[in-house]
Fold this protein.
Amino acid sequence: MAFKQKAVVLSSGGIDSTTAMAIAKDEGYAIYSLSFFYGQRHAFELKAARKIAEAVGVAKHLVINIDLKKIGGSSLTDDIDVPKDRNEAEMIRTIPVTYVPARNTIFLSYALAWAEVLKSSDIFIGVNAIDYSGYPDCRPEYIEAFERMANLATKGGVEGDIKIRIRTPLIHLTKAQIIQKGTELGVAYALTHSCYDPSPRGLACGRCDSCFLRRKGFKEAGISDPTRYIESG
């Protein structure tokens, strides 16, 4: 059996991270999937991430517990209402309360530690700088800065054995283009979960920013949205 390079892939159970994982697999990597229970409002995204890891056939799926609820400051980790029924102009006007302080920095730091242990040069993250909710840690300049830091802060980087690359294959794609790419690669989007505020049964609210962007993406891609929304039961 041919040796496969290893890649750590951050997996939220959503469209973007799942498509990034499919791209990593298509490039021939052995996938090490990393998810977090960080005190978020619900665990449906983690259930989705586990199902996706099984469907993709990852080498290992790891879930790490971090209690960001103790820090709060976000409607995903604190007693703050999730914004609903906003249009695109409202989404990009300010950084929304669904932004979790330093989340991608925390997640990438754990991914970096695992990559060091695995002797992997590649960390995939499904950040996007076009159809997104204005999060500062999804921008190209942030990713470039983290990559520089990663190579300064690791044993492999200092000794020259491993050059860490933060792979962002979706960063300049629209949500529709992401969905089209994933569909070409056989992604089962019915397994994914995007909603910030689902029902107790896991039905998507259809009204939060994430649901809006998901619906918009499938519509513009010309692909049927497999999501189960509250209004459709």
Observations:
- The longest strand covers residues 30-37.
